[in-house]
Amino acid sequence: MAGGTRRRGILPVRGPYHLLRTLSCGQAFGWRVDGTGAAGVFAQRRIRLTPRRGAVEVDGLDDAASLERLAHYLGLDQPLRAIERELARDAVLARILRTTSGVAILRQDPWECLAGFVISAFNNIPKIELTLDRLRRRFGAPLPGGGYAFPQPEAIGAASERALRGCVLGYRAPYLRAVARRVSTGTLDLRAPFSLPYDEARRMLLDLPGVGDKVADCVLLFAYGRGDAFPVDVWVKRAVERWYFRGRAQAERRIREFARSRFGSLAGYAQQHLFVAARTTLRF
DNA sequence: ATTCAGGTGCGAG
DNA sequence: CTCGCACCTGAA
What we know:
The chain is an alpha+beta fold. It contains 14 helices and five strands. The protein has helices spanning 19-24, 64-74, 80-87, 91-100, 110-120, 125-139, 153-158, 161-165, 173-184, 198-206, 213-222, 234-244, 252-263, 267-281; strands at 8-12, 32-33, 38-42, 45-52, 55-59.
């Protein structure tokens, strides 16, 4: 491909925003992050993102509408300076923010986010990525510049369990297919959680097979922007127990309620910083 | 060969 | 309602 003719865009960045930290802290599965940037798919295009001084360089996209959507997806419009100043009133967060600062909350597509976290349950990251890659290749539309779109719920819903298990979904195959069918038939309205209170939106998601407390909160936070959601995974559980409960074990429900009441609408950000800090500094 | 991995569903008390 | 246990499967 000729060098100078490639589509390219620039997104301005302000505050402590940290692109690679945001893309590699486990909110989304689709990004391949290396030393200089991240590669993935957005707006039906294969793109590459590179952090620059005060900006994010976007290769593979140049129309204003897509770039604006990308900025929103990446959380570039979030007031991280003020958010982190508020979080730093908490002594634990004040300490760990020195190494976790700049994490924004992505605004992911609800279906893709939901599917990804259903697959993530009791799984490990390499295998989650293997599964998602196979699902894309087998059920996703091939993209112009290479790569595959994330499969539509119709495609997953129509797949045989055998074909899904071929994507190493294991026992999650029937869960994912059932969720896909509820979405594609309209039994589940994925726009509804945008306009529902936390508890109701959460109940809706919990009704889905393969969706429990943790996955529901992940989707509420990473797709619906519900900042009051606080997903409790094994790492966050360890972090909260160690740093807020003197190492004493607590039920996940108790941890979630403690954090939601302590951090309010910023609970989701608190969770991200605790998660990053736990994964990078805690050894168990 | 065993063990582990970013939870969930299910039955029991 | 809270608790304990089994669970597909690739990778170490």
